[in-house]
Each structure stands twice: as C-alpha cells, then as structure tokens.
Design goal:
By secondary structure, this protein is of the alpha+beta class. 48% of the residues lie in helices and 12% in strands. It has 12 helices and 6 strands. Strands 2-1-6-5-4-3 form a 6-stranded antiparallel beta sheet. Helix 8 packs across helix 9. The longest helix is centred in the middle third of the chain and has 21 residues. The protein is globular. The protein starts with a helix and ends with a helix.
C-alpha cells in the first residue's frame, strides 16, 4: 500500500462526514458537505499541516496513535479502521493493548447528548473525545498532546483545571485514579504507553508513588463536581461514569437537577459555548 492510497482514503472518508455529525458548527459557506482539513485536524488532535501531508502523500509513517485518532474522527467502522491501519503499514492493536476505538454506534448515541457535557476516556484514563458542551464547561482540550491528555497525569502533576476539590475529594480522586491505572496495568501488561505513564508518574510524583507502592485498590465512583467557570461562575454538577463492557472505555457525563440554579447556568453555558465555537 502506498501513501497515495492512504491519502485518497482519508480524503474520501473526510468528504462523507458532515461537520454537524461530528458536533461542529457549519461555519459559513462551504464547497463540500464533508469535513475541512482543519476540522479533521481539530477532531483528531493533530496539526492541519500533518493532515495535508498525509493526504498529499508527503507523510508516510503515521504513528498508531495518529491513525487511531483519525479513525475515531472519521467515524470508521471496524473493517474500515483495520483497512486504515493496513494502509499506514501498521498492525491493528491486539487485545493486549488498551483499547481506544469508539464504535460509530456509540458516537451516534453521544451525538444525541448535545446539551450534556460528555467525554470518553480509555481504561488508562486518557481522554479520547469530548463534545462541544464539555469543552465549554471545562475548557478547550484540543491542544493537549500525549500524556497531557491523561487524567491521572493532570491530577498528580498539577495541570490547570476548573474543577475544585475539597481535601477529602482530592484524596478519593487520587486513590481512585491510582486504582484504575493498577487495574489497567494488570489487564494490559503489554501496553508500552501505559507502562511509560506509570513509570513517569512514579518518578515525578511522590504522592502517586506512595499510593502505588501502598497497593491501593478501588475505582472512580459517581461523584459531584464543583466547577469554577470564568463566565457563569460556580456550578455543582453530578458526574456519572458509564463503563462499556469489554473495552474499558468510560463515558463521563455532567448534569444538573432540573429547576436548580446549576441547571440554569448549564443552559446558559450551552448558549455561550455555541456562540464561542461559531465565532472561531
């Protein structure tokens, strides 16, 4: 398979995905109904220049992470995803690797939750996708790369966040994240990225190393989160985690009880977030 075939496939799949299907605003006059290169780059978390070079055959060795991100952004079926990996000269990740494939049927389900902040993470707590409401609530994550997209990395190494925790909540969060990573490491012992994540966290965070060596077990549970938003102020929302059987994927959703001030702020945020995205 040549890079030209890879580029042709990417362009063909890009042309069939509409911006609205992918949760993006139409953004003015368009020559085609499909995704623009910059939109595919945004959804996949890679640069527009790299998408261009892939399509034009000037980039020939994309990593498996890039290919997986493109498959997710293009909403490929299982067979199409396998074909894309083959075009890129890569072996499809096996069961010993942390799964990061989100089936199109799940994406369609998430598309219906337009008024709900939603994100999907893998078993290693790495952020795979978010919807516009999640971005409006917790901030733009499109610029985050590699380990920066991992939830445990952010908690233990101090990445900025709008979520505010009490000391007790912070402790429970840390224990839950270490426990989830321990379970993932036991389930996917051949995953090099997961091993690298754990190794670096143990080396760079005394707190993580302490909890890891203590052998804490447990899981991240349903909780309430207080979020300090720069435009609507403080919101206290329920955060539910739905787990997909067999894959380790987690769907995180934020909601407020109807009729409350928090629900009104979330509705306002939906308007603010939409206006902000349309202006970009």
């Amino acid at each position: 398979m040549t890079a030209t075939e890879l580029g042709q496939a990417l362009r063909r799949w890009r042309d069939r995905v509409s911006p609205t299907t992918a949760g993006l605003p139409l953004g003015g006059q368009r020559r085609a109904s499909g995704l623009r290169r910059e939109e595919l780059a945004l959804l996949a978390g890679i640069s527009v220049d790299y998408v261009t070079r892939l399509e034009q055959g000037r980039a020939t060795n994309p990593s498996d992470q890039v290919v997986e991100a493109l498959a997710r952004a293009l909403r490929l079926t299982g067979d199409e995803r396998a074909y894309l990996f083959g075009l890129a000269g890569l072996v499809l990740p096996g069961p010993e690797m942390v799964p990061s494939y989100i089936p199109p049927s799940v994406l369609r389900l998430l598309d219906r939750l337009v008024d709900t902040p939603v994100a999907v993470t893998d078993a290693a707590l790495t952020l795979l996708m978010t919807n516009p409401m999640y971005q409006a609530l917790l901030g733009d994550t499109s610029g985050a790369r590699g380990l920066e997209r991992n939830g445990a990395w952010g908690v233990f190494l101090g990445s900025s966040t709008r979520i505010r925790h009490t000391q007790e909540e912070q402790r429970a969060l840390e224990i839950g994240m270490v426990s989830e990573l321990r379970s993932a490491a036991a389930r996917y012992p051949a995953d090099r990225q997961l091993r690298q994540l754990v190794t670096e966290l143990r080396a760079r965070s005394e707190r993580f190393a302490e909890l890891w060596e203590a052998g804490v077990v447990g899981s991240l549970e349903v909780s309430r989160k207080t979020i300090e938003h720069p435009q609507v102020g403080l919101l206290t929302l329920d955060c539910n985690v739905l787990r997909m059987d067999g894959s380790g994927l987690r769907i995180l959703g934020y909601s407020a009880e109807p009729g409350t001030e928090d629900a009104e702020k979330l509705e306002l945020l939906a308007v603010i977030g939409t206006q902000s995205l349309a202006a970009e």
